[in-house]
């Protein structure tokens, strides 16, 4: 067989490597369409890019530092806990309010003040761990020249979130926006958060169980839902399994035990001024439970939290006859504020992810374009949520392809 002419052969190498250089993989993000002005509780899965105080993490997302600790079942009774330094690569769940903006669910309450050497890419990929892309920040702030960022500029950072009516297969759920790591599989994510591959595929409108580094998935977490009246300021409160939430101006602490669907609320341990927490026509206080065995069963009386309205803590006395008396109230275990990330377990309060390698920050999607039609997966459960997919082109292995390109050129000129 005739040997190819070398210049032609090496020219072919140049073209091949160039085509690889410009080939982009696709980072996907789940988009939930919406048409109302309602909001919901949601969570972000965030990996710290450096050591940060609890208050500094809270400042990044403009949320209450105590709410971050409770969402991760971290004990807030430790002295000066808001200034506790959290270690780099720690995985946290960040609670935030999910709104309906321009017809899709997103959070627009986060602003970032630029610092020296910041770029849109570093803000998106490092500071916010790939939860947003540089293009999304550029579009949200009408930045004409992304190479020029004045120090101290306040940038809106649009963040992903999902509500899906606060349910998953007709049961209470809170949705976690999770950035896929390079070692993740859909089966591993499903196992980690105690759901199924089918459920994740339905929620995220996936045609196949394939994920790539940088994809952002909406992950349903089992939760305990409230039944407060609509006039309560905390109407719709929902707490994920294994975590806590503050209500009534930090006066009330609500929890959802592992595997439970029943919200339990009691006075919070914080030293704040609160209205009365006693149930009307009873000497029981909020969170108190009395039981009395009888021949017919067990008479249970509880003083329940019923929301916060006009500065008043609403309580409700509930009486029921149950077949047997309930045992002691179960709580999600509280953890000490962490100083290190354990080698054998990536820190993430229940449901606890398995350790899946060093806590490297996932690559940021390069851009986000909402397609005109949603790629919904056929055969969704009757009451199962389904979003659509936003795709973002991201060029990976830049150095590899550039080196190949240079090698090809050097071969040509050496001939």
From TrEMBL:
Query: How is this protein annotated for GO cellular component?
Result: plasma membrane
**Xref: Pfam families:** LysM (PF01476), LysM2_CERK1_LYK3_4_5 (PF23472)
The signal peptide, as residue positions, is 1-27
- Looking at the UniProt entry, the stretches that span the membrane are 395-413
- Could you confirm whether the keyword Metal-binding appears in this record? no
| Ranges of residues in domain LysM | 110-157, 176-219
The protein's matches in InterPro entries, at most eight in alphabetical order, are given as:
LysM, LysM2_CERK1_LYK3_4_5, LysM_dom_sf
Keywords carried by this UniProt record = Membrane, Signal, Transmembrane, Transmembrane helix
Keyword Transport included in the entry's annotation = no
Query: What's any GO biological process attached to this entry?
Result: immune response
Among CDD domains, the record links this protein to:
LysM (cd00118)
Q: Name one GO molecular function term.
A: peptidoglycan binding
Q: What is this protein called?
A: LysM domain-containing protein
